[in-house]
Each structure stands twice: as C-alpha cells, then as structure tokens.
Write a structure and sequence with these properties.
The structure is a homodimer.
Chain A (H helix, E strand, L loop, with lengths): L7 E2 L30 E4 L1 H8 L5 E6 L1 H8 L2 H10 L2 E4 L2 H8 L7 E5 L7 H5 L4 E6 L4 H13 L4 E4 L9 H6 L9 E3 L4 H13 L3 E5 L6 E2 H5 L10 E6 L7 H5 L3 E4 L11 H16 L2
Parallel strand pairs in A: 1-4, 3-4, 6-7, 6-11, 7-8, 9-11, 9-12, 10-12
Antiparallel strand pairs in A: 2-5, 3-5
Helix pairs in contact in A: 1-2, 6-11
GO molecular function, one term (chains A, B): RNA binding
Organism (chains A, B): Corynebacterium mendelii
Protein name (chains A, B): RNA methyltransferase
C-alpha cells in the first residue's frame, strides 16, 4: 500500500509557509521572483491535478480537508505529490480566505515555479497544427484558446509580440489548466525574431494561414479542406487581437488569408470563438 | 434638409426625466413595470443605433454631446429618432454616472419598452435555421449566442424552460444589440408547451438536432452536411446548459444527436462556442 501523504495543519494565516498564496489578487507581479513575474497558481481540484501531472514543478498545495481528500483520491495525482515532494497544507476555508485576500470557493490552491520555457523549435517539432498569436493581450481569450486547443487537436501555441503572459493566474483558470499541458513558446519581441519564427515554420513545412474577417479572404473551409484536394500536412494558424486583427506585415508573411463568413452588418466573432471554429475546421479536414 | 433633433440639456441628476436610467445595476427588476421586469436598456452608440433600428419602441436616449453627435450623424438613426419621437437628453458624463450609479464609459444609453413577444409560429415561419435553448441561465452565453447567430445565418431563437431573460441588460450588451434584431420566442414553461413546440418544429419540416458532448453521438458534420447527401432543408439545433446539457427527455424528442469531437481527457466546449461551431457547420453546409 502506498504511503499516506503527510499533511501539515495550519491555523495561523500569517504562517510563512502559506506565503505562496498570499494576496492572490496581486500575486502576478513579484519583484522578488525571476523576471518579476509571479508563481504559477492553480485553483480547484481539476486544475491542481493537471498542474501536478504537468512538467511544472509543484511547490505547495493548500486546501480544506475535503478538497485535499478529493485531490489525493486519484492515485496518479497522489503519486505526483510524492514524487515532487511538494508541501501539502490542510487549512480551513476561512484561513485560506484570510491568506488569499478573498474567498476561494474552490477550496484548493497550488503553486509552482515557472519552468524554463520551450523554444519555438521544440514546440513545432512533431506538430501538425499550431496557433500563432500576435498582439493578443486579453487573458480570458488566451485561456479560452488553450482550453479549445487542447480539446481540438492543436499541438502547440506560439506567442508573437504584444501578447499577455500565458501563465497569469486568470489564464491558468480559464484554460482549465491546459496552458500547463499544451506546449507554448515566445518568438521573441523583435520584428527580426518574429520573422525568423515564421520562416522557421515555413522551413518545417507548415502552411501559414492568417485568420481575418476581411471579406476578400478565402473561406476557411476552402483553405484547410480544399474541395477535391488534400488538406495541408502542417498548418500554422495566425490569429491577431480582437479589433485590430493581425498586422498587414504578419499577413504578408503567410501563405494565404482565410475568413469565417459573417453576414453583412454584423460583428466579427470573438477572437477565441473564431479560433475555435478554425480548430474545428482543421480537425474536420483531417478525419478519416 | 431634415429637421434638427431637439436635445434637452439636463444638469440635475435627480431630474425625473432621467428615471429610466436610474441605478442601472438594479434596473432589471422593476416591480412597478409589467411582469416586474425592467425596461430594455441599450448602451453605447452601436447598440443604441441597433435599438433604434429595431421593433423595440425607444422611450429615451441620454448621452454626452459628443456621443449624441456620433449617434445622430447616421441618417437612418436620426430618422428613427424622429419617427419614434423619443426624448433625447444631453447630459455630462458626470451626471450620467450619478444617475446610473457607475461610470458608463460608453457615454450613451437608451431605454425601450418590452414589446409583445413573438410567438413560436412567428419565429419559425420562413426560417431555415433556428436554435432552441433549454435551461440556459447564463446571460453572457445567451448574449454571445445572439451575437454569433446574427453573424452566421441563424433565423431565430426559441427559449424552453429554465432560461434567463434575454432582455436583461447584460444580454443586450454582450449580444451587441442583436437580441433586439433576431426574433425569439418562449415555448412556455410547462412540459406540455415544450413538447408542443418541438412537435410544431417537426410539423414545419425541421430536422431536430440535439447538440451533446456524448462521444456516442454522430459527428456534427455528418448530421448537418452528410457526405454524398443533401443538408436538411430546415434545422432546429437544441442546446442545453453548460454542465448538465440537454435533458434526456428533450434529446428523445429530436431526430438525432450530434457532437463536436473533443480529445479524450479534455473539457467540453463552452456553450456559446459549441453553438458557434454548429452555426458555422450549418452555414458551411449550405454554401453554393
């Protein structure tokens, strides 16, 4: 029988062993941490279990007795806790609220260090579908995109200039932890590194597709699933920010421009929803 | 030259002519109004112009001079203001904030009475694609669905039991005003009226399709765009609440169950996103 996992009971909110979870509304900026960025914070049983199953080194878990029971009932998760040797702290919901600064109704939270980020080469190696974001600053859109990417066969995500931090607490939550599983990399912040990354994708055989509401663009079904033709073996789907969209500069570096048709006089789709439709179409084109 | 539209300048937040816009965070319940529901409230130039172009009788518009200029610069909108005879009030952003109870950064707001609701028969007459919601209580999902429905060729929306009020202020905003344009109706709150509405759809030649994450369901592309076959002439797409989904009872009343394929170990799509993909697939199947 596996060893029982030791839990440290803590009743004092000022206990320094709870510092990873202090004042969570302001925890995404940590001048004391490398790069000034916060720890990775996972909330709730599902997302914490995904953190424990990921390459992110878990530092600590804190939660109510009931939530810890629920978390550790899964043998793979319990094994991950043993392997990482992370600290497991049992605290009341009231103490957790006093530490976090608000009532964490999910009753469970975990922290992890930011690992060394993947390189662009690592993310695209073996991938057949990647998404490339430019200027996407909205945490909810990024989280939603990771959630959908994981569900619909996207192998990796690349971040160009101007994107928000994918390990921000809100992104982790909205992605339901998938940002901890689906590999991602940054292309680097300069126009040169951006161009180099797009060129690298082309060198690796990717067809680069710009997603745009421009009515002159081709129907995305004709691009990803050409009638009477064969779908591209590898696709890199470029998506820009809601509103401005992709820069002309970025679109010029792609093989073609694709649109999701919208009725005249209506509004373009929300960014994450447009991407979800593109992921769906890509997956549809590849089914047997 | 068209008459200049008279604007009433108001500097006193307690002026009773501004009552439609008082305390907007609590304006969705109005015991003094028919059914205890609030007026329809539209915010911002785009949504207010859509309200003015709709069948909803506009009562009043209030906004800053700059926003009123922007709104009335459109001849069709100015004509609608003249036609409805609604009161146009010019107020400062500070007065607007004092009335509404928070800073309305869009600087423009309009009110309308709730019109007599369409019947189910009216909504489905002439329609080739409708969406039928069951138990969808989330305002943001409903708003998002109307926004996408308008853009992707859905002709009408039917509400079964347990759905939130589609004219709630937040729905109007998230829908970008499309809830004021795309016709909708309620099936009535009893199992009998619900069954009768589904039977009516079938009588009118609609193929009833349940959207479900159940892996045993058919791929939605095979249902809406059968390979080598012809897409159904009329489709009613049933969508349930996030989490529980459609009731088994509802699904049994439909012709088939369709799924959007998701990778194992991931989460089903957000409700509005799943619906958006279904709308996309329906539109894709009908293109020439």
């Amino acid at each position: 029988m596996a060893d029982v996992i030791a839990r440290i009971s803590i009743a004092d909110p000022s206990d320094s062993r709870l510092d990873d979870f202090r004042d969570l509304n302001h925890s995404d900026r940590r001048p004391d941490r490398p790069g000034g960025k916060g720890l990775v914070i996972a909330e709730g049983v599902l997302v914490v279990s995904r953190l424990l199953g990921s390459r992110f080194g878990c530092r600590a878990v804190a939660g109510t007795a009931a939530k810890l029971d629920e978390l550790l009932a899964d043998p793979a998760t319990a094994e991950a806790v043993r392997r990482t040797g992370c600290r497991v702290m049992e605290i009341s919901r009231e103490v957790l609220a006093a530490v976090a600064g608000f009532d964490l109704h999910r009753g469970l939270v975990a922290s992890a260090d930011r690992p060394v980020e993947h390189t662009v080469e690592q993310v695209i190696a073996g991938a057949s579908t990647v998404v490339v974001l430019e200027g996407v600053g909205d945490h909810e859109n990024i989280g939603s995109m990771f959630r959908n990417a994981a569900g619909m066969g996207v192998d990796g995500v690349l971040f160009g200039a101007g994107c928000a931090d994918p390990l921000y607490r809100r992104v982790v939550r909205v992605s339901m932890g998938h940002v901890l599983r689906t590999p991602f990399a940054h292309t680097g912040g300069t126009p040169t590194t951006w161009q180099r990354s797009l060129a690298l994708l082309a060198d690796h055989g990717f067809t680069l597709v710009s997603l745009t509401p421009d009515p002159r663009a081709r129907h995305i079904a004709d691009v990803l699933d050409p009638p009477g033709g064969v779908p591209p073996a590898k696709v890199a789907l470029l998506v820009g920010a809601e509103g401005p969209g992709l820069t002309e500069h970025a679109m010029r570096a792609t093989d073609c421009r694709a649109r999701i048709p919208m009725a005249a006089g209506t509004d373009s789709l929300n960014l994450a929803q447009a991407a979800a439709i593109a992921f769906y179409e890509r997956q549809r084109s590849l089914r047997g």
